[in-house]
């Protein structure tokens, strides 16, 4: 009898250990895992799968397998070159503005009394936190013809500036949103620079300009690389503001970028029959680039240090 | 720079000039919503209460605005609640438990954090159709919360990591279950993290455009973003009324931002969209 009781206890202890090792983490991770599988992993596979079918409005119920036909059609599209050029233009120019402006803002706001610097940084976050539709509406209002539009007033030329120079508006509108990202990261990087370096520079009689060039900028190399890499990827796939500002126009493919074209092909019913499979093929290219580049980040930005062992462990 | 340059007031003027476009944009919105007409930034009186008529009457075939407001509120609150609870649970497990595959899971979260989720929208449209969740608030809520999970898990893991663990250890040895420990001990201690993530999620969901625009079609389930967007595309001339809609839509954001600014600066620095 006694023997059996001991046995039972040991078994239940074993069971409890098993429970805490597998069941508890599983319980805590279940909801997150379900959502991630359903709306990240499954969509990645679905994008790749759909891109190999002829699925469209007409064939939504019974899509047929067509292999790489969609990709072949893409390559044969006479407008592909234009769309790629647009994408490159959008990503590069916006990136230049974002990183440059972010850097300027970080340097300036850390060079004035912190009270004012903080207020300016808060104001620069507004474009990012305003609902995108409101933000674009403000742009539409400011770029109208005189006497209403502020831009027409200031420049003394009455035009609708969105149709007159769509690219400038698109890059500035995206740029004002994106600059705050670099601004915040560079600001905390500047704050992390040891004070001694600034004192040393001051004692050596360095001017503010020299301090920035010789002390601060070299130390910001890594954050600048990070912001550039991160923003390149998100700009490549973002189309929200272009969709709202010009929807690819004015005219034929004037401001259509890759991500927007994929979206229009698959989900905007312009031509009656949306070409879901073709859109998926364009999106699949972005998904693959996105996965490869995000994996690359893990290697570059020191993954090992981020995955330290958990602290509390009683098994 | 930590050492104030001698002519820092000059730099402040440069900053002020750089910030003019943003300030004038927000000012323009409020002026245009209030007055009869606005030339540049100069209002032409009188004040125009008719700009606000959308509040008490439906405009041009749209549902009444309160439908959109209520839907947006439900959407934002449920997304934020789901996001905070689900990512806290996962973050707690990753921060505090050792289980096989833990490194892999954290790696997955990090990759997905950098991965631009918007490129999945075509597939998500298809999956929601299959699940029968297309054109439902439930569907968009799940999608929006899911797409922000990697950020939430990563953020909350950081908060759990900084907690001292003696108390938890003692409670565990006393036989308190992980589940109780999580809700009663750990969660209250990471309140700043919950507030930051909660505010961020509220703002982000309230402003969300692409997902509801793509995944909801019924006008009875429209959100504020789609409601306002219908004005933007139809070649309207009544800027005053549309601006008033914009004010109603943007005001909660500005208030919430002013209140939660301190928490938020950290989160946006951690990066979400370009």
Write the layout of secondary structure elements.
The complex is a heterodimer of chains A (315) and B (274).
Chain A: H1 2-50, H2 69-76, H3 80-109, H4 114-129, H5 132-142, H6 150-155, H7 161-164, H8 166-191, H9 195-203, H10 208-219, H11 221-237, H12 240-245, H13 258-267, H14 276-300, H15 303-306
Helix pairs in contact in A: 1-14, 2-14, 3-4, 3-8, 3-11, 4-8, 8-11, 13-14
Chain B: H1 8-34, E1 35-39, E2 42-47, H2 65-96, H3 102-114, H4 121-131, H5 137-162, H6 166-173, H7 178-189, H8 191-207, H9 210-215, H10 224-233, H11 239-270
Antiparallel strand pairs in B: 1-2
Task: Please provide a written account of the structure.
- The complex is a heterodimer of chains A (315) and B (274).
- Helices cover 74% and strands 0% of the residues of chain A.
- Chain A is mainly α and 315 residues long.
- In chain A, helix 2 crosses helix 14.
- The relative contact order of chain B is 0.13.
- A two-stranded antiparallel sheet of chain B has the order 1-2.
- The interface between A and B is large, with 125 and 112 residues.
Structure summarized in a few sentences:
With 315 residues, chain A is mainly α.
């Amino acid at each position: 009898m006694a023997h059996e009781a001991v046995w039972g206890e040991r078994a239940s202890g074993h069971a409890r250990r098993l429970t805490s090792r597998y069941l508890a983490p599983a319980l805590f991770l279940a909801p997150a895992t379900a959502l991630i599988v359903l709306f990240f992993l499954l969509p990645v596979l679905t994008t790749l799968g759909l891109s190999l079918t002829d699925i469209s409005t007409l064939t939504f119920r019974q899509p047929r397998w067509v292999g790489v036909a969609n990709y072949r059609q893409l390559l044969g599209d006479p407008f592909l070159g234009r769309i790629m050029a647009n994408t490159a233009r959008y990503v590069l120019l916006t990136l230049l503005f974002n990183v440059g402006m972010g850097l300027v803002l970080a340097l300036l706001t850390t060079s004035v009394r912190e009270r004012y610097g903080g207020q300016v940084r808060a104001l620069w976050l507004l474009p990012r936190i305003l609902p995108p539709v409101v933000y674009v509406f403000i742009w539409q209002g400011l770029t109208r013809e005189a006497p209403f539009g502020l831009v027409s007033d200031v420049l003394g030329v009455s035009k609708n500036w969105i149709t007159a120079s769509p690219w400038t508006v698109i890059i500035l509108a995206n740029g004002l949103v994106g600059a705050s990202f670099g601004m915040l990261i560079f600001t905390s990087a500047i704050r992390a620079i040891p004070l001694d370096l600034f004192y040393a520079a001051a004692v050596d009689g360095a001017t503010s300009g020299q301090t920035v060039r010789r002390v601060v900028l070299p130390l910001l190399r890594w954050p600048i690389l990070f912001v550039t890499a991160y923003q390149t990827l998100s700009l490549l796939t973002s189309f929200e503001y272009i969709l709202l500002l010009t929807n690819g126009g004015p005219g034929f493919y004037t401001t259509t970028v890759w991500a927007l074209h994929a979206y229009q092909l698959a989900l905007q019913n312009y031509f009656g029959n949306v070409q879901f499979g073709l859109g998926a093929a364009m999106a699949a290219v972005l998904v693959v680039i996105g996965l490869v580049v995000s994996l690359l980040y893990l290697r570059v930005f020191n993954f090992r240090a981020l995955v330290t062992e958990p602290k509390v462990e009683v098994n | 720079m930590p050492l104030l340059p001698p002519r820092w007031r000059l730099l402040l003027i440069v900053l002020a000039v750089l910030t003019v476009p943003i300030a004038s944009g927000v000012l323009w919105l409020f002026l245009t919503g209030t007055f009869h007409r606005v030339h540049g930034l100069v209002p032409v009186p009188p004040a125009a209460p008719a700009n606000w008529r959308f509040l008490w009457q439906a405009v041009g075939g749209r549902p009444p605005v309160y439908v959109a407001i209520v839907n947006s509120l439900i959407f934002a609150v449920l997304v934020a609640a789901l996001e905070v609870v689900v990512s806290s649970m996962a973050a707690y497990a990753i921060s505090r438990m050792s289980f096989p595959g833990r490194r892999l899971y954290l790696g997955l979260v990090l990759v997905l954090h950098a991965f631009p989720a918007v490129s999945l929208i075509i597939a998500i449209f298809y999956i929601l159709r299959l699940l029968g969740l297309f054109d439902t608030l439930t569907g968009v809520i799940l999608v929006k919360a899911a797409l922000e999970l990697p950020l939430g898990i990563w953020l909350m893991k950081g908060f759990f990591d900084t907690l001292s663990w003696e108390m938890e250890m003692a409670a565990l040895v006393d036989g308190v279950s992980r589940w109780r420990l999580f809700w009663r001990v750990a969660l209250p201690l990471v309140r700043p993290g919950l507030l930051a993530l909660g505010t961020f999620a509220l703002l982000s969901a309230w402003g969300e455009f692409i997902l509801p625009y793509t995944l909801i079609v019924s006008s009875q389930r429209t959100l504020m973003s789609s409601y306002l967007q219908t004005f933007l595309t139809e070649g309207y001339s009544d800027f005053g009324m549309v601006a008033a809609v914009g004010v109603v839509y943007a005001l909660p954001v500005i208030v919430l931002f002013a209140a939660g600014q301190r928490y938020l600066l950290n989160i946006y620095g951690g990066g979400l969209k370009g």
